[in-house]
């Protein structure tokens, strides 16, 4: 299974925010630069993460992004399911629809595989993603001193 670019960026953004301190905020631009992606793309990702309650954005001087406690404890499986949506791995109902869709066993098998993928990620939290060696690497990307 392959995640969308949007979900990939969201996971990288929450990982970047997970290594910052609770009183330390980072701008969307800084996250985009650290992840080497366009600011506009990261801004859309951050907006979606805000709506989910994973990220808090503060405006004004000293403002920026903070990973919420809910975001830190969030299951990676839940996050990927939520960001990816309910779309199936194969487009059986696309235009034109697949002629095998009425009696196809592949569709069900792929749906099960997709759910197994997410179930594997369920026990993993965002906080787990930044355990060593990832956390120190993320700190170096954001220009922050290693702890």
Based on the model shown, name its key terms:
single chain, 147 residues, mainly alpha, two-stranded antiparallel ribbon, 8 helices, elongated
Structure description:
- It is a single chain.
- This protein is mainly α and 147 residues long.
- Helices cover 52% and strands 5% of the residues.
- It has a two-stranded antiparallel sheet with strand order 1-2.
- A hairpin with a 5-residue loop joins strand 1 (55-58) and strand 2 (64-67).
- Helix 1 runs antiparallel to helix 5.
- The mean pLDDT is 86.
Q: Provide the low-confidence segments as ranges.
A: none
Strand order in the sheet with the most strands: 1-2
Terminal residue distance: 35 Å
Main β-sheet description: 2 strands, antiparallel
Q: Would you tell me the structural class of the helices and strands?
A: mainly alpha
- Tally of extended strands? 2
Count the DSSP helices.
8
Helix content class: 40-55%
Give a quick summary of the entry:
The chain is mainly α and 147 residues long. It contains eight helices and two strands. It has a two-stranded antiparallel ribbon.
Secondary structure elements and their pairing?
Elements lengths: L4 H14 L9 H8 L3 H13 L3 E4 L5 E4 L1 H5 L2 H9 L21 H16 L4 H4 L4 H8 L6
Antiparallel strand pairs: 1-2
Helix pairs in contact: 1-2, 1-3, 1-5, 2-3, 5-6
